[in-house]
Design goal:
Blueprint: H1 22-49, H2 70-85, H3 90-102, H4 108-123, H5 126-135, H6 147-162, H7 166-176, H8 178-185, H9 191-219, H10 224-239, H11 243-263, H12 267-270
Length: 273
């Protein structure tokens, strides 16, 4: 191993940036940013092309129903998840690469690890797909019903409340301890072990982030403003040791917003623009 690589003195996301040489760090970060930016570009183009389509509860009644196929929807979802989640995986990716180099393994195992991580986020797309298919069957009368804003408000309340649960904390702790995760989930079994570790880490990441992601079901799956805000929270949450504080602040704001939507249904359309 090059002399510039060092052993971690602590197990935090920030520490993962200090175990490899600056060249290795730069190469990984540039690669993630390039893929993420390309995915963001495609996501923005998709969002603009679907601006007049119903993609969330708050858009029912004043936008046209979409006839998007399941295949197109899932492709859109995978691209969106690559845009939003790939930058957040930098710490654990660097930790995985560092551990593999100490084991004398190449970078291909880390690529397999990331593939396993993305597989989980891709597979979870079945849930928003089913929600989307339910949305396209709603007519304009639903926009004037009481249950629709109540459902949207309940989603916001649930997303906010989840940020304070033990499940959130447990998944967050795994995401905040990249070296401990690699040591306990990748037993140097080659590509299969790396793939399994990536899938498990992806599952913990879903457990950590699903609440905020579910907000998009209420305000629009392709709502760029909300996507950018949620992405920013994810980046801070995954890279800062006090990220859980940020998650709880976001949770508190969502609880207030959810209550406001239930009390004032007209607010739902305003936050879904």
């Amino acid at each position: 191993m090059p002399a510039t690589d060092t052993a971690p003195t602590e197990d935090t996301p920030r520490a993962a940036f200090g175990v490899l040489s600056w060249r290795a760090n730069l190469a990984v970060i540039i690669a993630l940013l390039v893929v993420s930016l390309l995915a963001w570009r495609s996501t923005i183009e998709s969002s603009l092309s679907m601006r007049g389509m119903v993609m969330g509860l708050g858009q029912v009644g004043w936008l046209t129903q979409s006839d998007m196929t399941a295949g197109v929807f899932l492709a859109m979802w995978v691209t969106m998840m690559m845009a939003m989640m790939l930058p957040t995986v930098a710490p654990v990716m660097l930790a995985h690469l560092a551990v593999n180099r100490r084991r004398g393994r190449g970078a291909h195992a880390t690529l397999v690890f990331v593939a396993g991580y993305l597989f989980i986020w891709s597979a979870i797309g079945i849930v928003p797909l089913l929600a989307f298919k339910a949305l396209v069957h709603l007519d304009g009368d639903a926009a004037h019903s009481m249950w629709l804003p109540m459902l949207a408000g309940a989603i916001l309340l649930a997303a906010g409340a989840y940020q304070f649960t033990g499940w959130k904390r447990a998944c967050f702790d795994h995401c905040q301890s990249p070296f401990a995760f690699i040591a306990t989930h990748d037993f140097d079994g080659g590509a299969l072990s790396a793939l399994r570790a990536g899938v498990i880490h992806g599952a913990y990441c879903v457990g950590c982030c699903w609440g905020l992601t579910a907000v998009l079901l209420a305000v629009g799956l392709m709502n760029l403003v909300w996507m950018a805000a949620i992405f920013a929270i994810f980046v801070v949450e995954k890279s800062w040791r006090h990220g859980l504080v940020v998650a709880k602040i976001a949770g508190a704001l969502l609880i207030v917003l959810g209550g406001a939507v239930i009390a004032h249904p007209a607010l739902l359309a305003s936050i879904s623009l």
